[in-house]
Design brief:
By secondary structure, the protein is α/β, with parallel strands linked by helices. It contains 18 helices and twelve strands. A three-stranded parallel β-sheet has the order 1-2-3.
Length: 462
């Protein structure tokens, strides 16, 4: 079976980590099966959809390394949506309703008071053409409901109608259409709700698998019925658990919580940290930082995903980023370093990568290497060690063994070792309490800068 999946965000805000879960799972599933991945921008909300958010979504995908096989704007497909609606009307399964929101709420309250589920009573089906004409003459415009196939011959005598499917995440699933109201597909102003355009587009784009959050499980029964009403093959469905913070709170595009844009631009999170966490959290598989999407796809097992919400701590993204940088070979980052004006080549990267919490910290360490003397004047008790270090500083060329030979000579001459030896040297040479191995940094700093820094540290106080 040829696999075609889609990620269908509404460009009404910035994508957050929860959206990234659906995005990454779809993209990886397509990779696993050598299938197609479609980005469909569900931009029919004319008031809230903006070109800025649409552009941001495309930037997020590019940052994650996900390249869609096709980009579709749902707003450009209105003629296809209208055509499908007219066909459903002709089939007699899309019918006009005239109740106001207040009237519908009154009905629901009465049903609850009687201990009945608040399901629409299909009263609109009993209206005559004359009755509809009177309401329309009074200014009312109908909304249109899809008549669920949960009856044999009389729509006012509903019967249990079980819609079943084998969910690629959750296994066997079912929904009884008798427990649901006929859904509104078209509003009174003629605009469409989510369901009809989504199904029509899935049909015409040849979507084979719909992978999405488990808040859509109940919707699936209605959508399967709609696929069938339109005479189309039903795709396979998969519903993954939702991503929530450690305290159980949900993520939202409207609040900007953990948006991919902020993770990228403000937090310095690596894209594969996001992809790895988004794909593996809340499953039987260990969350680990995979180096690329192909490796991550090989680790993906949709049937390992738990049904419980996937709780996570945002700090995990920083931990994953650190491990990714620590294990990145120089060839993978050479262009990025050059873009930041960082030189030093592979030797510099090997020296600092284990100490990076985010990639742009490499700039700070490069300044430590080439900048002016960074350290403060040494404490009085450290001056004898540094004076001896200055006197014994070897001639160039320096290599990875230079620091060890130098410090052994200082230890023998000054009678110090351990922290009393290495800590004053680190402060004098780097101005930092901790950092990369000095054996790796010293050849990059070079003899002239090292000597200048030692002299500064030993300068007379005052």
């Amino acid at each position: 079976m040829s696999v075609t999946v889609r990620f269908a965000p509404s460009p009404t805000g910035y994508l957050h980590l929860g959206n990234a879960r659906t995005l990454v799972l779809n993209a990886l599933f397509a990779r696993q099966h050598q299938g197609r991945f479609i980005l469909r921008l569900d931009d029919t909300d004319r008031e809230r959809s903006t070109p800025e958010f649409a552009r941001a979504i495309r930037e997020d995908l590019a940052w994650l390394g996900i390249v869609p096989d096709r980009l579709v704007h749902q707003s450009a497909r209105a003629p296809e949506h209208r055509s499908a609606a007219e066909r459903l009307k002709a089939y007699g399964v899309l019918y006009p309703c005239y109740e106001t929101a207040e009237e519908l709420e009154y009905k629901r309250r009465r049903q609850r008071a009687k201990g009945l589920p608040p399901i629409y009573d299909r009263a609109a089906l009993k209206m005559t053409a004359g009755g509809r004409a009177v309401l329309e003459a009074d200014g009312r415009r109908p909304h249109w409901r899809f008549l669920l196939p949960n009856f044999t011959s009389d729509p006012f005598h509903t019967e249990s109608r079980i819609v079943s499917w084998t969910d690629v995440v959750r296994g066997p699933q079912s929904v009884d259409l008798a427990t649901l109201s006929d859904p509104v597909l078209v509003r009174g102003d003629g605009s469409f709700l989510y369901t009809l355009p989504s199904v029509v587009d899935d049909i015409e784009l040849g979507i084979s698998h719909v992978i999405r959050g488990d808040d859509h499980v109940t919707n699936t029964g209605v959508q399967i019925a709609l696929f069938q009403a339109l005479g189309a093959a039903v795709p396979q469905f998969g519903h993954h658990n939702l991503l929530v913070l450690a305290d159980g709170s949900a993520l939202s595009k409207r609040t900007g919580a953990l948006s991919l844009k902020s993770l990228r631009e403000e937090e310095g999170i690596e894209p594969m940290a996001v992809a790895s966490l988004a794909a593996l959290i809340g499953s039987a598989d260990r969350v680990e930082p995979l180096p690329d999407l192909d490796s991550l796809a090989a680790h993906l097992h949709l049937d390992h995903i738990s049904r419980a919400p996937a709780r996570f701590d945002p700090h995990e993204l920083h931990t994953l980023t650190h491990h990714l940088l620590k294990n990145r070979p120089f060839a993978d980052v050479a262009r990025r370093l050059a873009g930041l004006g960082v030189e030093g080549g592979e030797a510099f990267w090997e020296a600092v990568r284990g100490n990076l919490g985010r990639f742009d910290e490499a700039v700070d360490w490069w300044q430590v290497v080439i900048g002016p003397p960074p350290g403060p004047e040494a404490a009085a008790e450290d001056r004898p060690v540094l004076e001896m270090a200055r006197a014994l500083l070897p001639q160039e060329p320096f290599d990875s063994a230079t620091y060890g030979g130098w410090t052994r000579a200082i230890a023998a001459a000054a009678g110090v070792k351990g922290r009393a030896l290495h800590h004053p040297l680190r402060l004098a040479l780097t101005g930092r309490e901790a950092g990369p191995e000095l054996a790796r940094l010293l050849p990059l700093i070079g003899r002239n800068r090292a000597l200048e820094r030692l002299e500064r540290a030993c300068a007379p106080v005052g």
